[in-house]
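Project outcomes to date are best conveyed with an example. Our students and postdoctoral researchers have been running inverse folding experiments weekly, and each run begins with a structure described purely in tokens. The record below, which covers 960 residues, was selected by the lab manager from last quarter's runs and is presented without edits.
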């Protein structure tokens, strides 16, 4: 993204004319490596098409589309011309901003400059500036006024508690461009101030981009700190911008009129009371913008000059944005919209000119505002429906076919297919009359409301019931209905209005990259789709009565967590990988699952009988009776084997020739510790401590963490506990710890890299761990260590705290081996660590350069790849040479084919999901250490995971 800073400025430039200035700019861009030679011709050609003079002494030369390939790095260079350069049309330029951009990134720059352009006489100040810093100050312009308009007010919002209400407020601020990531967590840490009448106040000045005030009221009265909550103000404060509004609010409260705000049912009332910008209710019309580079300076100027033909005001906004419309007479305001190709513009005109002005403006936009435009692709009327892989063109696999997928959760399952694929809906975008359309919508909503109610009543599982209660609240959200109603009165059909509003709100929530809101967005789309299906008369496939096989495109962890394991016999996904977190949850729930079966499974007819083998990764479509019988026999054998394994679950895992390997449990919560011991765990080999952090709205304090850790240690009764310190970032963001967006989060700030940046969080966790252990067997390990220095910093912090707390006892400190550099550095690290635990999920991802959740590639991310085995082997050899132990805690440790190899590589401990413990122990008992060593030695010489799997299958003569 284009940003401006003082380092990009070259002061005191001189040029005889525009051409000479362009030459200087071209040279500056080239010298700094932003563009390759030849870009100057692009600057000149663009200037020949039309002046890039922007106003207030500023020009923004940039290349033509056909010179974009010469851009090497997006950026700008600014040349200051104190004496000015004639830019044509009697315009004098004091600042030329040369842009190197591959697409329409300069729209963002225009938005940044709009404040400068809106000022009375910036040109003079630009000319007089003496230093880059002074120039930057001019560019940053006058202080911004407080933003308070319809988009920042939410009345009767469906929320369950104060924290959610707060998120609703900050969501609005973020959407309006007032704040950036991190603002919410700042606010969450502050104390809310009660203002009386159930009104509350919170404000923050960090991460504020422009001042703004959001006001949100809950659909149902809430309580916070023992007092009622009927409305919450969230202020993004900056300078003095809020002073007038605060005066008004204070007067209102002093006059005892706070209740008017708390009980307001119209946004207009709130805005009137607080002096916010009122939405206009003039006639309006919409038109999509087709200009290739959006509403940049040239087309905006054309629009602006059009306004001169009418004796009245015309305003515009981006239709989906909800923001207050801006006057088309103001170039700076038009540019500040940042409208892009494909976005819908909504024009408003004063009633006396509307009949002439709106058609004229629409025509001008359609004709391209002085630019030649390519027509936009046809609008797809399925906003509610998630982007579907081209399911319609797929052919379902034929009866009797067996597909190879990725085994994600063990077990055999059969049952009718219940494919959940996005449906397509066809409908007329225009309605009969607002009343008739509203009635249709009401009927559809009532019908779906009744269905959801039945689901609430019928579900045995609390978490699932809660999901449906949320769906009910979303269905009744007055804000959504209000918005839909507005669209109906503009002539939309019920389907069009409903799908547009749901799609827009859901996309906004998703765009905020907030876990909670993203989940709500998925819920909203779900509810939206059901209502739309009803309106269109499309029957949604009903879930079969008997246990079924759920077939989906991709499945998120929360999808799996909500499944009713009584009704879902198995899961098949078209995409996804075995080490994705959803697969891990499926295993924890004990539901057999296959992932990455290919998109054609999405075309399966509902009800088709499926046979799923979660160990071999096989999916048989409409299996013949004898295959089903054979599977049934296998299932019985496995059950028997499982029973035998369970009977011996408390015995050690000892090979036939007497070698013992420890088998421990992987836990994702503290409650599971007791059950793990019941299932034969000899300790906990990996406590994924993130869950403590993920479950709360703010960073958990030491006392609450201590209680959680103590619970596990108590349940373990002296058995060792290996805890991994907080591992977030990448695919696991925390609601209150927003991580700046990274192009490649898996290679970004995650695991120990992140916690070392926020030592307070890490210190609190370490204190809680040490205090909870109080001398008991505690092993602390750090995730994602890739550098010696990271390990040393984390270790030193732990030892310092141990001394500080004066805790002695059975403490070991180690690292997870998840990054290849840690394995390669094992001989050095082994001199300092107490132990290693190999996280094969990430180690495989990084060694093979395959995203573990990649929709199509993750099938190849097999931890039995010889390259991964080599890394494990190096780690074990280095550890044993220094008298340290090595565990494996990735999913590979429970893989029946991997167990002999890990044993043969002399790994000391396997840590697996608690349910897998009996079978893993049983597997070890069937093996010989001497043959396992040989097998592992041979595997290390092979070239692919498939060869390794074939070797194991052949050597052991069976695959369990
Ligand atoms: C691993 O990477 O193997 C591991 C155990 O950690 P997680 O799956 O939680 O990333
Ligand atoms: Mg990991």
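After processing, the design step wrote out the following sequence:
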């Amino acid at each position: 993204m284009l940003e401006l800073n003082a380092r990009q400025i070259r002061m005191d430039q001189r040029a005889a004319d525009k051409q000479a200035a362009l030459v200087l700019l071209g040279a500056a861009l080239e010298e700094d490596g932003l563009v390759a030679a030849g870009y100057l011709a692009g600057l000149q050609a663009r200037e020949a098409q039309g002046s890039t003079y922007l106003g207030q002494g500023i020009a923004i030369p940039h290349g033509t589309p056909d010179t974009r390939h010469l851009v090497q790095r997006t950026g700008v260079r600014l040349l200051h011309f104190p004496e000015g350069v004639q830019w044509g049309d009697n315009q004098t330029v004091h600042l030329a901003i040369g842009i190197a951009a591959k697409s329409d990134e300069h729209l963002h720059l225009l938005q940044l400059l709009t404040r400068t352009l809106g000022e009375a006489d910036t040109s003079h100040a630009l000319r007089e500036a003496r230093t880059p810093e002074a120039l930057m100050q001019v560019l940053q312009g006058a202080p911004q006024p407080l933003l308070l308009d319809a988009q920042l007010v939410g009345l009767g919002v469906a929320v369950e508690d104060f924290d959610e209400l707060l998120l609703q407020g900050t969501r609005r601020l973020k959407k309006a461009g007032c704040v950036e990531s991190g603002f919410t967590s700042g606010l969450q840490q502050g104390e809310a101030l009660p203002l009386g009448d159930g009104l509350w106040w919170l404000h923050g000045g960090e991460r504020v981009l422009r001042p703004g005030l959001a006001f949100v009221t809950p659909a149902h009265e809430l309580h916070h700190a023992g007092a009622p909550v009927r409305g919450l103000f969230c202020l993004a404060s900056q300078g003095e911008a809020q002073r007038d509004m605060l005066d008004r609010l204070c007067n209102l409260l002093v006059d005892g009129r706070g209740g008017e705000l708390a009980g307001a049912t119209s946004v207009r009332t709130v805005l009137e009371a607080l002096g916010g910008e009122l939405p206009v209710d003039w006639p309006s019309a919409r038109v999509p913008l087709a200009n290739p580079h959006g509403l940049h300076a040239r087309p905006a100027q054309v629009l602006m000059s059009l306004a001169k033909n009418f004796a009245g005001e015309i305003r515009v906004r981006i239709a989906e944005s909800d923001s207050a419309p801006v006057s088309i007479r103001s170039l700076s305001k038009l540019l500040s919209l940042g409208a892009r190709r494909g976005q819908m513009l909504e024009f408003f005109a004063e009633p006396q000119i509307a009949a002439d002005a709106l058609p004229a403006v629409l025509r001008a936009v359609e004709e391209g505002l002085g630019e030649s435009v390519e027509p936009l692709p046809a609008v797809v009327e399925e906003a509610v429906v998630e982007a579907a892989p081209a399911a319609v063109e797929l052919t379902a696999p034929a009866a009797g076919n067996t597909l190879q997928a990725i085994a994600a959760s063990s077990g055999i399952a059969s049952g009718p297919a219940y494919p959940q694929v996005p449906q397509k809906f066809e409908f007329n975008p225009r309605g009969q009359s607002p009343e008739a359309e509203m009635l249709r919508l009401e009927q559809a909503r009532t019908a779906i409301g009744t269905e959801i109610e039945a689901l609430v009543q019928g579900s045995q599982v609390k978490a699932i019931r809660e999901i449906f209660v949320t769906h009910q609240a979303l269905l009744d959200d007055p804000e959504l209905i209000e918005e839909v109603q507005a669209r109906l009165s503009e002539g939309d059909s019920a389907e069009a209005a409903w799908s547009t509003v749901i799609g827009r709100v859901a996309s906004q929530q998703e765009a905020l990259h907030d876990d909670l809101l993203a989940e709500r967005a998925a819920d909203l789309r779900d509810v939206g789709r059901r209502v739309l299906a009803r309106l269109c008369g499309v029957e949604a496939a009903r879930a079969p009565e008997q246990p079924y096989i759920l077939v989906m495109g991709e499945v998120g962890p929360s999808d799996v967590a909500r499944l009713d394991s009584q009704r879902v016999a198995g899961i098949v996904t078209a995409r996804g990988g075995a080490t994705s977190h959803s697969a891990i949850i499926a295993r924890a729930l004990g539901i057999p699952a296959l992932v990455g079966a290919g998109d054609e499974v999405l075309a399966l007819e509902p009800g088709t009988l499926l046979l799923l083998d979660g160990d071999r990764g096989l999916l048989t479509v409409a299996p013949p009776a004898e295959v089903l019988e054979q599977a049934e026999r296998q299932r019985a054998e496995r059950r028997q084997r499982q029973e035998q394994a369970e009977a011996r679950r408390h015995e050690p895992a000892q090979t036939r020739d007497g070698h013992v390997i420890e088998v421990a449990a992987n836990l994702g919560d503290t409650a599971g510790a007791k059950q793990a011991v019941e299932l034969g765990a000899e300790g906990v080999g990996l406590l994924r401590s993130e869950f403590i952090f993920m479950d709360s709205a703010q960073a958990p304090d030491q006392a609450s963490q201590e209680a959680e850790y103590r619970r596990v240690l108590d349940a373990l009764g002296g058995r060792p506990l290996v805890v991994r310190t907080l591992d977030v970032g990448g695919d696991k963001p925390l609601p209150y710890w927003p991580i700046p967006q990274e192009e490649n989060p898996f290679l970004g700030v995650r695991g120990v890299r992140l916690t070392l940046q926020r030592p307070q969080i890490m210190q609190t966790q370490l204190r809680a761990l040490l205090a909870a252990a109080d001398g008991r067997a505690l092993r602390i390990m750090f995730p994602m260590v890739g550098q010696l220095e990271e390990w040393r910093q984390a270790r030193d912090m732990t030892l310092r705290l141990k001394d500080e707390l004066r805790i002695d006892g059975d403490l070991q400190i180690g690292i997870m081996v998840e990054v290849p550099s840690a394995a390669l550095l094992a001989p050095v690290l082994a001199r300092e660590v107490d132990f290693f635990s190999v996280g094969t999920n990430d180690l495989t991802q990084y060694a093979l350069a395959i995203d573990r959740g990649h929709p199509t590639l993750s099938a190849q991310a097999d931890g039995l790849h010889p390259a991964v085995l080599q890394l494990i082997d190096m780690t074990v050899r280095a550890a044993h040479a220094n008298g340290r132990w090595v565990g494996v805690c990735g999913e590979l440790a429970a893989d029946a084919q991997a167990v002999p190899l890990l044993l043969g590589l002399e790994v000391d401990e396997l840590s697996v999901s608690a349910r897998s413990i009996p079978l893993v122990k049983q597997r070890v008992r069937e093996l010989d250490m001497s043959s396992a060593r040989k097998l592992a030695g041979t595997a290390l010489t092979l070239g692919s995971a498939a060869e390794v799997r074939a070797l194991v299958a052949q050597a052991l003569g069976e695959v369990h």
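The radius of gyration is 32 Å. The first helix runs from residue 18 to 31. The training component of this project remains on track.
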